[in-house]
Amino acid sequence: MGSMIDFDRADGKGKARGYLATSTRAGAPGVVVIQEWWGLQDQIKGVCDRLAAAGYHALAPDLYNGVAVPYHDPDAANQQMTSLNFIDATDNAVRGAVQYFKKQGLKAGLTGFCMGGAVTIIGSVRIPELDAGVCFYGIPPAQAADPAQVRIPLQGHFASRDDWCTPQAVEAFEAAVKAAGKRVEFHMYEADHGFVNEQRDAVHDAPSAKLAWERMMDFWKKHLG
């Protein structure tokens, strides 16, 4: 189990807050984990705990400053998400979390789900300290992240039954990244948006979630150690 900590924002303007789970592995790399549009839910903290158990320090910034939206209230989740300044959050809270690990001399990866998947791709363009990224069912608008500017090895996991991060959007982004000669590895699953979240019975798909997790862990081992 981890705990809430404060860490420096990248712009030096105060602190951000997040959930940190630490590994006992010597020299363990760090992974920054970005929430869904529901906020810093226990499920996201659980992802951090699983990563720590697998040998990675994991830090999930609280981008909603303490607000966690109930799963039955998508309108409230949408309001929180649309109120978020994605660029500021990426450049300062998320980058600050990456720097938290880099200041310790560790490699650092970035992963996120839904809204956090979009932030992961934005971070892959805007955060120079990153070593690798794994995106789960989130694609940002082109003006937020130019596919040709992706800096890092990038893995993605997407759902075939997704009317937000549609297969067409995924295919277009993947093609643009590959056309720019970037390293990208995308996977599509016969599942619904949010299929990794075991707290949401309506969309959780255990076999797809298991396969995606295994692929992510292989990717971290290759690029983070």
Distance between the termini: 22 Å
CATH class identity: Alpha Beta
Please name the fourth-level CATH homologous superfamily: Alpha/Beta hydrolase fold, catalytic domain
Low-confidence stretches: none
User: What sort of overall outline do the alpha carbons produce when their principal axes are compared?
Assistant: globular
By oligomeric state, this entry counts as single chain
Please tally the helical runs, counting DSSP H or I stretches of 4 or more residues: 6
Task: Give the integer mean of the pLDDT values.
Answer: 97
Helix content: 25-40%
The Cα radius of gyration reads: 16 Å
Largest sheet: 8 strands, mixed
What's the helix-strand series?
EEEHEHHEHEEHEH
Number of strands: 8
Model description:
- The chain has helices spanning 42-53, 74-83, 86-102, 115-126, 167-179, 206-223, and strands at 3-8, 15-21, 30-34, 57-61, 108-113, 132-136, 154-161, 184-192.
- With 225 residues, it is an alpha/beta fold.
- The chain has a single domain, classed as Rossmann fold (3-Layer(aba) Sandwich), CATH 3.40.50.
- Strands 1-2-4-3-5-6-7-8 form an eight-stranded mixed beta sheet, sandwiched between helices.
- Helix 5 (167-179) links the parallel strand 7 (154-161) and strand 8 (184-192).
- The protein is globular.
- The two termini are 22 Å apart.
SSE order and pairing:
Layout (H helix, E strand, L loop, with lengths): L2 E6 L6 E7 L8 E5 L7 H12 L3 E5 L12 H10 L2 H17 L5 E6 L1 H12 L5 E5 L17 E8 L5 H13 L4 E9 L13 H18 L2
Parallel strand pairs: 3-4, 3-5, 5-6, 6-7, 7-8
Antiparallel strand pairs: 1-2, 2-4
Helix pairs in contact: 3-4
